[in-house]
Amino acid sequence: MNTKTHTILLVDDEPEIREMICDYLMDFENYHVLRAENANEAIGLLEQNRVDLILSDINMPGIKGFDLLQIVRDRFPTVKRVLITAYNVEEYLQLAMDHDIGNIFVKTAPFNFGELSSVLRNLLAGNIFGIKRYFSENVPVYRYTVNKSNCLDQDARKIISTINDYQRAKRIELVLIELLTNAIFYGVRNESPETKESWNHCFELNEESAVEVLVGSDREKYVISVRDKGGRLKKQDVLYWLNRQASYDEKGLPLGLYDSHGRGLFIARRYIDRLIINIDKDKQTEVVMFNYCNHTVNGHKPLYINEI
């Protein structure tokens, strides 16, 4: 992708952060970057320039990031939107629902420039599916087909066994089973969570509707994607379920403690380093899991939900 053809509007009231990110995007990624220190300045630049993507801080004096991106959505609907914060994303899930925001990048120390590059590049390219895009080198990608509903634990075990960092990968075996269950029963079969007790667990999907799992790894990380060909998942539903698990009642219990649906994505987000959800409505859904091999990512986790 020729990044020079893309213009990014960077909005942050902290000069040091703004200049650091701007220098990286211009010098290393070759984007054309416009800078603003507040929402009013950003709106003025949008009115005068063609902008492909806005990357905005959340907490700024005056108009906050969520409200700015709502204005962008209403007035400049072709501009892709990403928020950036140093705080806990779980605290913003209700706002993300209200403003239809799927991507919130988290500032880390040291700053994760490689991850920011990947997020921006994929959004700007408009090609969000597959896992090779998450590797800087040409790595082998292994493909598995999952089509039997009563063999998911065996399938998950076989998939995990191919990862070099097996001991750490073993810990997410249950997460993978949850995602395979969601893909088959909700993504493909469109089952209702309210009738789980009556589900048929003895069937085999045909080749066209089978769930596809891709696995790749390099020295830094391993990546697993689970893709169904239903495309029934919705960004608003994912935000709703995540928010239910992150919000608490007067007794300190999660509002979604007894929910019959949505826990699999919450568990995946909690127990892996990075979770990315890609949705092509009524065509396909892809859930991508990252785990880093030699270290655990410290700090808050970002939110990545892409719906096309």
Word description of this protein:
The protein has 308 residues and is an alpha/beta fold. It has ten helices and eleven strands. The chain has an eleven-stranded mixed β-sheet, sandwiched between helices.
Q: What are the defining features of this structure?
A:
308 residues; alpha/beta; Rossmann fold; Heat Shock Protein 90; 11-stranded mixed beta sheet; 34% helix; globular
As a percent range, the share of helical residues equals 25-40%
**Structural class computed from helices and strand pairing:** alpha/beta
What is the CATH class designation of the largest domain?
A: Alpha Beta
Helix and strand succession? EHEHEHEHEHEHHHEEHHEEE
Q: Which CATH architecture of the largest domain would you pick?
A: 2-Layer Sandwich
Radius of gyration: 20 Å
CATH-assigned homologous superfamily of the largest domain: Histidine kinase-like ATPase, C-terminal domain
Largest sheet: 11 strands, mixed
Q: Overall pLDDT, averaged? A: 92
Termini, distance in Å? Answer: 19 Å
Strand sequence of the main sheet, in spatial order?
A: 2-1-3-4-5-11-9-10-8-7-6
Beta fraction of the residues? Answer: 15-25%
Number of strands: 11
Question: What is the approximate shape?
Answer: globular
**Tally of discrete structural domains:** 2
CATH topology of the largest domain: Heat Shock Protein 90
Residue runs with pLDDT of under 50 for 5 or more positions: none
The DSSP helix count reads 10
